[in-house]
Specification:
Number of domains: 2
Largest sheet: 8 strands, antiparallel, barrel
Distance between the termini: 103 Å
Oligomer: single chain
Length: 305
């Protein structure tokens, strides 16, 4: 009986030792498992957990759109801008420095100009509010060369006894009013006046914003400077009066830098290959110039990248 009890105790001790050894071996084996592995049913499975973030190609345009500081670096868009060529015939609609009537109202002669422009349009800004309304906004720079044909007259044809002028209309031609003083009064007469044109080149530089709608409408706003290649002038006339100066001359020297602003409204006509053709109406303002306001209709061709 005592022998059986001893054998049972010995077996219990040996079993406990085996269980403890198995637990230690299991823990030890788990500690030896590499970090990049998992254990399934006692077997180690190795996993290559390396992640290469640059392994996927990303569209450069998408990268630019995800850049939160893109609006702070808009000048980088001029590295590869969209180019636009334009031709805009224009007519003068202002009166410049003249008091009273404009040159056209006096003589029925309009100032005209032909403007050739080259414009570089940078990448589109991401303006969320305008984007939701269908508008894209871009920064642009423009250089223009215009040929001005300004109304003028030969002042040598003005009589010495002139006291004023009569403006042209449907019934009367533009003329100067002269007078002769006699002992019994004053006699007046009219002398026809004739116009000609003075021409000058005008160079302009401007920076501005371009707004393009998904329906094809476009708006451009620019401000900058203009300079004329030669002296230009304008004759100031007054109605007939016995007292006062009947006429005078406003002159503007060549290469004088003057402020200017420009607004355009256009619509895309068609696309041909990589070119986009757009029709425009344009208003230009030059507050210090002989002709201070222009209106024109033009056509531009934009090369799409």
């Amino acid at each position: 009986m005592s022998l059986k009890i001893c054998l049972l105790a010995t077996a219990t001790i040996v079993a406990s030792a085996c269980v403890a050894f198995a637990e230690d071996a299991s823990v030890s084996s788990l500690e030896k498992v590499p970090k990049d592995s998992i254990t399934v049913d006692g077997r180690s499975i190795f996993v290559d957990a390396q992640v290469h973030f640059d392994s996927l190609a990303t569209d450069p345009k998408l990268r630019r759109n995800l850049n939160p500081f893109r609006s702070l670096s808009v000048f980088s868009g001029f590295n590869n801008p969209r180019i636009e060529l334009g031709l805009t015939p224009s007519i003068g609609i202002g009166k410049g420095p003249l008091a009273g009537r404009s040159w056209r109202q006096w003589t029925c002669q309009s100032d005209v100009a032909q403007m050739l422009s080259l414009q570089a349009i940078a990448d589109t800004w991401e303006v969320r509010v305008l984007k939701q309304m269908g508008w894209d906004v871009s920064l642009s720079g423009r250089i223009s060369l215009a040929v001005l044909h300004l109304g003028d007259m030969d002042v040598e044809q003005i009589p010495d006894s002139v006291i004023g002028f009569i403006s042209a209309d449907r019934e009367e031609a533009w003329s100067a009013v002269v007078y002769e003083r006699y002992s019994n009064g004053i006699e007046t007469d009219t002398v026809p006046m004739f116009t000609h044109r003075q021409s000058a080149f005008q160079l302009s530089l401007a920076l501005g914003l371009c707004f393009e709608h998904r329906n094809g409408w476009e708006v451009q706003l620019h401000a900058g400077l203009v300079v004329n290649s030669r002296d230009v002038h304008r004759v100031q006339m007054v109605d007939p009066e016995l007292d006062g100066d009947p006429w005078g001359i406003y002159s503007q020297e060549a290469r004088t830098i003057l402020p200017a602003a420009n607004a355009r409204l256009g619509h895309v006509l068609w696309h041909a290959g990589n070119w986009k053709w757009t029709a425009w109406s344009q208003c230009s303002f030059q507050p210090k110039s002989i002709q201070n306001a222009w209106f024109g209709l033009g056509l531009t061709a934009s090369h799409l990248r």
